[in-house]
Amino acid sequence: MALPFKHHVIACDGTSCRDRGSRDVLRTLRARLAEKGLVGEVRLSVCNCLGLCTRGPNCVVYPEGIWYSGLSARRVTKIVDEHLAGGRPVKGLVLDWDDVEEPSAPDWA
Length: 109
Prior knowledge:
Blueprint: E1 7-12, H1 15-19, H2 22-35, E2 42-47, E3 59-62, E4 66-68, H3 73-84
Parallel strand pairs: 1-2
Antiparallel strand pairs: 1-3, 3-4
């Protein structure tokens, strides 16, 4: 059975990400998805922790499994335009896991 949406975005709104502006990122993300007519094609789920607290705000886009960190309203707009609408992950914004020493413990652990 095919999924009823094209992408699933999981965005963090945990304490560390919120302290770094995740609320503004989420507001912009929702607005841009609506502007681009992607609300039915993109499922947005908000979680409390993706485990990269010092790099937040963070999100992951499935089915590709592409991670983005250090998000801002400007960056998330680019992700919607290029990745979610255009089908191309945003070069320069994709998280390079070789630069991640060790994910932090989730704030619920």
